[in-house]
Amino acid sequence: MAAPEPEATTTAPVRAKDHSPWNWLLFIPIVVPLIPVFFNGDSPRIFGFPRYYWLQLTWILLGVSTTTLVYQLTKKRGER
């Protein structure tokens, strides 16, 4: 009786090929904070903070929300 042959295992990492157009949305939190017109001014102030400081927090929220949106739109539905 012949022993079953072991399955061939590959040790090379499999590269993900996700060419979803939703990935282009990830450029928004990169490009928008680089536009200088947003920082050109002191007012309006929110809770006494100048525009520059509260816009920094806004960019963080923009980045998190955009990343979450792209993840939800591009994840595989069958994976758990």
From TrEMBL:
Keywords: Membrane, Transmembrane, Transmembrane helix
Keyword Transmembrane: yes
Domain of life assignment: Bacteria
Residues spanning the membrane: 21-39, 51-71
Protein name according to UniProt: DUF3311 domain-containing protein
Classification of source organism: Bacteria, Bacillati, Actinomycetota, Actinomycetes, Micromonosporales
